[in-house]
Amino acid sequence: MTRILYLIVxxxxxxxSYGQMIMNAEGIKPDNICNPNxxxxxxxxxxxxxxxxxxxxxELIQKKLNETISFAKENxxxxxxxxxxxxxxxxxxxGGGFHVVTKSGNESLDTELVDFFKTITEWNAGKISxxxxxxxxxxxxxxxKDGGVVILNR
Length: 154
Hints:
Layout: H1 2-17, E1 20-22, E2 40-42, E3 53-54, H2 58-68, H3 70-74, E4 80-88, E5 94-102, H4 107-117, E6 123-124, E7 126-128, E8 132-134, E9 136-145, E10 148-151
């Protein structure tokens, strides 16, 4: 019985802290953040944290993305996946530090994607303890196929 109690306490403590990691991408320095030494990677798995979120809907952003990105339209048989990461500061502003985490397989497409996502400037900042806004990383996960780009974040 004591072992079960210890296990439950251990799991509760770990679940409470799960998801609030402070990460630095090697060589990447966001230039517009509130606290340079504390950029969280929020997973949203902890009930007390809220991931940063664009104010515009993902559907609207995806529509604009497909209107803007020429590579996918010009190369409809190209297929790939890409991930673009950057920081959102504690005020809900783009914090910088844009970088490609997963390359699409085409450098010019990766550049187009980064340039496009720099134009999404209005955000709800990430939060810990449901109240305190913090600097956090955000990652766009994308799939390129059939002449378009699909945002996998939902």
